[in-house]
Amino acid sequence: MTQFREVRARAPHDPVAPAGDGRSDHLTHLDTAGHARMVDVSAKPVTQRAAVAVGRVVCAPATVEVLRRGELAKGDALAVARIAGIAGAKRTPDLVPLCHPVAITGVEVSVEVVVDGVEIRAQVRTAERTGIEMEALTAVTVAALTVVDMVKAVDRAAHIGRVWVERKEGGASGTWERGKQVAADEAQDLGTGTGTGVSASAGREVQGPRAEVQAVVVTVSDRCSAGERDDVSGPVLAEILTGWGAQVSRAVVADDAEAIAEAVRDAVDCGARLVLTTGGTGVTSRDVTPETVRPLLDKELPALAQAVRDAGRGTPGALLSRCVAGIVGRSLVVTLPGSPGGVRDGARVLAEVVEHLLDQLGDGDHPSARSTR
Question: Does 149 qualify as catalytic in the annotation?
Answer without folding.
Answer: yes
